[in-house]
Design goal:
mainly alpha, single chain, about 85% helix
Length: about 100
Amino acid sequence: MSEGAFGFLLLVLISSATALVIHWFTRSLWSASAVAAVFRLWVASVVAAVLATVIFQVAAYWHAGRLDKFFPIAVVVGGFWSFVIALMIGWLFRAARHP
């Protein structure tokens, strides 16, 4: 497995774990109205994406011993994919709660 593929796999794992934890915690914080559920989905997804991106960048810094020269691009791309993963997990939480 190449270093890039391992990095993407690590990003997916960190994003999935972060999204699961954030969506699980926010599930019990807000009311169950339809508007609150949609708002909760988006807010939890953004929070999970930001947190996952930070965790991933810290892990990459620890691994390499320095910031990558393409750090800003990695933050944007990693944040986008983390947000997509968090939205998918949030939709699964919403589907499980509202069959």
